[in-house]
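User: Please fill in residues for this 266-position structure.
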């Protein structure tokens, strides 16, 4: 059967309209969120039923590093992510601007200094090797923690830009090994101490409030945030997710699940 040109155009238009409606319906009410498994992935799993009752399907995609969740968000494969603090996000986007912005402060995973060889900071030997994260943001955070522990002194005012070259006093002559953050828990067998991000500590059974020989305080600016791209900030489903993550139910769950190892920031 042959159709006339006007009829063919009309059928094509109807087909395209139907396809667009089906695609829109399939995507409506779905949020794809990237996260590290612990605690972000577990927290997102907890709030998933809360969102389902509001008509939002939460799809959680877990990552084992701190780079790919931002890349996936910037490329449109995700609608949001939960794993990073603002200093890291800012440092990341200096080299890879992806138009990612913070949406809501969620929790503080306090950075900790861990050791299998000593139980007190003062017991670290002269010339001890300390492993720290090799990305600029978490590396600076680690050095600031060591300064608060009284092990080193940094140049005045370096703050979140601190690097090993900014150390002005190192009374124990500590040696530093800079490693990918995900590798730091495994490095504990080979170094005198290591500074480990809480998500990686929890994954290997370390409890920050119980096992760290020195721990970041609750006044830390390194709170993990829910983040998205600037064009998605006004997504109403994202607003529902932010509300669920900062709800009384989420706060009670965080405190029960992790105690002092994860500190709600709301």
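Assistant: Residues filled in for all 266 positions:
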């Amino acid at each position: 059967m042959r159709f006339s040109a006007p009829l063919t155009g009309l059928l094509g238009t109807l087909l395209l309209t139907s396809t667009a409606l089906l695609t829109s319906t399939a995507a409506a009410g779905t949020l794809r969120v990237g996260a590290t498994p612990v605690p972000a992935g577990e927290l997102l799993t907890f709030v998933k039923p809360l969102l389902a009752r509001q008509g939002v399907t939460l799809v959680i995609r877990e990552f084992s590093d701190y780079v790919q969740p931002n890349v996936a968000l910037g490329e449109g494969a995700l609608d949001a992510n939960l794993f990073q603090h603002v200093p890291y996000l800012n440092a990341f986007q200096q080299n890879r601007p992806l138009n990612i912005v913070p949406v809501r402060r969620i929790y503080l995973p306090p950075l900790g200094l861990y050791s299998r060889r000593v139980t007190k900071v003062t017991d670290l030997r002269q010339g001890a090797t300390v492993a720290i994260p090799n990305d600029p943001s978490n590396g600076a955070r680690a050095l600031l923690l060591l300064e608060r522990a009284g092990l080193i002194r940094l140049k005045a005012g370096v703050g979140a830009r601190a690097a090993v070259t900014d150390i002005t006093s190192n009374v124990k002559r500590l040696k530093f090994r800079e490693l990918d953050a995900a590798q730091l828990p495994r490095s504990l067998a080979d170094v005198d101490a290591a500074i480990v991000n809480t998500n990686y500590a929890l994954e290997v059974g370390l409890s920050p409030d119980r096992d760290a020989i020195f721990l970041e305080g609750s006044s830390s600016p390194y709170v993990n945030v829910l983040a998205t791209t600037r064009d998605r900030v006004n997504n109403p489903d994202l607003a529902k997710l932010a509300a669920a993550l900062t709800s009384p139910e989420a706060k009670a769950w965080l405190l029960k699940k992790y105690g002092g190892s994860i500190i709600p920031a709301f």
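For context: Residues 112 and 215 are 4 Å apart (CA to CA).
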